[in-house]
Write a structure and sequence with these properties.
Helix content: 25-40%
Number of strands: 18
Shape: globular
Strand order of the largest sheet: 5-2-1-7-8-17-18-6-14
Order of helices and strands: HEEEEEHEHEEEEHEEEHEHEHEEEH
Strand content: 35-45%
Distance between the termini: 26 Å
Low-confidence stretches: 83-88
Largest sheet: 9 strands, antiparallel
Number of helices: 8
Structural class: alpha+beta
Length: about 375
C-alpha cells in the first residue's frame, strides 16, 4: 500500500510538471522522493545549501538544487525481485555510431602517444526511439534490475527528465569522516567475478586512485586506500579501490571540485583531457558524468538503538551528511527518444574496436530496461 502511494505521488508530481527526484541508495530498500513545491530553477551558490543537487559534467555550468526548505520528502520501503536478463539489442537512431567512435578513440590514442595527456575518457550518445514513454515504469525497472547501484529518476520542467543506475560514488561525508572510490576498468560479467585484468585496465584504474589521493591530500588528516577489487555492476565488472579518512577542513565546494571531474570520467592531466573532449566529442554531455545526490542533510544518531533507553537517546548527535554519486549509466528522455550516454577510458594500450564493444555493453546495461 505504501509503495502504491509513493509512486502515485511522484506520478502526480510529474503530470503537474513540478520538479522532483526519486532515488534509492546502493544495497538499500528505502526509496526516497524529494518533491519541490514550485517550478523555480534553484541554483547552488557555495555548497553550504541543503537539498538534492544535480550537477553537470562542465563545472563552469550551474548546479541545480531542490532545496530542503522548499520541498517535501517522502520515503517508502520497497522490496524488489532480482531481474538481470538483458532484452533484445536496442536499435539505434544515431547515424554511423561505430565509425564515429572508432575515429574518436584513434585520435585519442594518437594524442596520448604524442604526450598531450596520459588518459582521456571518450563518450558518445545514442538515440533510441521509444513508442510509449512511461518514465515511472522505467524507474521501477531500474530499481528491480540494479540493486547495488544508486538508482534515480530526476525531473525539472525547465531542464528535462533523466534516469540512471550509477555504480560510482563521488563523495560521502558525515561530520569529518569521508568515503570515496576509484572506479575504472571494464569487462563483461560472465557468471563469475573471479577474473583476470589486463595491464590496460589495471593501469587505468591506478591512474584514478593516484589522482584522488593526490587531490584529497591537502584536505585530510588521514587517508586510507584499500587494494583494488573486482565489483559487479549490472552485467559488467569493474575495478574498485575504496578510499576513506578524516577531513582537516570542511570547505565542501573545494573538496568536490578538487575531485570532479575525476580521471574516471575526464582524463589526466585534467585540463588537457578536458580540452580534448570539448573539441572532439562533438556533443554536449550535459549531466552525463556530472554528479548528483544529497547535500548537507542533517542526520541524527544515538548511542543506543533501543528506544527504551531514554538516557542514552538523549545524547543523540546531529551531523551534516552529503552523499554524492557520479552520473554514469544514465539516459535522458526527450521527444519520444531515450538518449543513452556511454563512454570509456582511453590509454596508450587501448584498442579502438574493444573500446567500441565496451560502450555497446554499457549501452545494453542501461538500455535493457526500455
Amino acid at each position: 500500500m505504501l509503495k502504491d502511494v509513493f509512486f502515485t505521488h511522484i506520478e502526480s508530481q510529474h503530470k503537474s510538471q513540478l520538479p522532483f527526484v526519486a532515488y534509492r541508495k546502493p544495497n538499500e530498500t528505502i526509496v526516497k522522493a524529494v518533491l519541490q513545491n514550485d517550478t523555480e530553477l534553484h541554483i547552488v551558490d557555495d555548497f553550504t545549501e541543503s537539498g538534492f543537487i544535480y550537477a553537470p559534467y562542465d563545472s563552469e555550468n550551474d548546479t541545480i538544487i531542490f532545496p530542503s526548505e522548499m520541498s517535501k520528502t517522502l520515503t517508502s520501503e520497497i522490496k524488489v525481485s532480482s531481474d538481470t536478463k538483458l532484452k533484445k539489442t536496442l536499435e539505434s537512431d544515431t547515424e554511423n555510431p561505430h565509425e564515429q567512435y572508432i575515429e574518436l578513440v584513434q585520435k585519442g590514442i594518437e594524442s596520448i602517444i604524442n604526450n598531450q595527456f596520459k588518459k582521456v575518457v571518450l563518450s558518445r550518445v545514442e538515440a533510441v526511439t521509444i513508442s510509449e514513454v512511461n518514465p515511472i515504469a522505467i524507474f521501477k525497472s531500474l530499481l528491480n534490475r540494479y540493486q547495488t547501484a544508486f538508482v534515480y529518476i530526476w525531473y525539472h520542467p525547465k531542464v528535462g527528465l533523466w534516469l540512471g543506475a550509477t555504480p560510482e560514488t563521488l563523495l560521502h561525508i558525515e561530520g569529518q569522516r569521508f568515503k570515496t572510490m576509484a572506479l575504472a576498468g571494464t569487462q563483461p560479467y560472465v557468471n563469475t567475478t573471479k577474473v583476470e585484468w589486463d595491464i590496460k585496465n589495471i593501469e587505468e584504474q591506478q591512474v584514478v586512485t593516484d589522482f584522488i589521493k593526490k587531490e584529497l591530500a591537502p584536505y585530510t588528516n588521514e587517508l586510507i586506500t584499500m587494494p583494488a577489487q573486482t565489483i559487479k555492476a549490472g552485467q559488467l565488472l569493474h575495478l574498485q579501490s575504496k578510499i576513506s579518512g578524516t577531513l582537516r577542513v570542511k570547505r565542501l565546494r573545494d573538496i568536490i571540485f578538487a575531485l570532479h571531474p575525476t580521471p574516471a570520467v575526464c582524463g589526466l592531466p585534467k585540463k588537457e583531457a578536458k580540452d580534448f573532449i570539448k573539441f572532439n566529442e562533438n556533443y554536449d554531455r550535459e549531466f552525463y558524468t556530472g554528479f548528483l545526490g544529497e547535500l548537507n542533510i542533517k542526520t541524527s544518531k544515538t548511542r543506543n538503538t533501543n528506544r527504551r533507553n531514554v538516557e542514552n537517546n538523549a545524547y543523540a548527535t546531529v551531523k551534516n551528511s552529503s552523499q554524492l554519486y557520479v552520473n554514469l549509466r544514465c539516459m535522458q528522455i526527450k521527444n519520444q527518444q531515450a538518449l543513452i550516454y556511454v563512454g570509456g577510458g582511453i590509454t596508450k594500450d587501448s584498442k579502438p574496436q574493444l573500446e567500441w564493444e565496451e560502450t555497446v555493453n554499457k549501452k545494453q546495461t542501461i538500455g535493457s530496461v526500455l
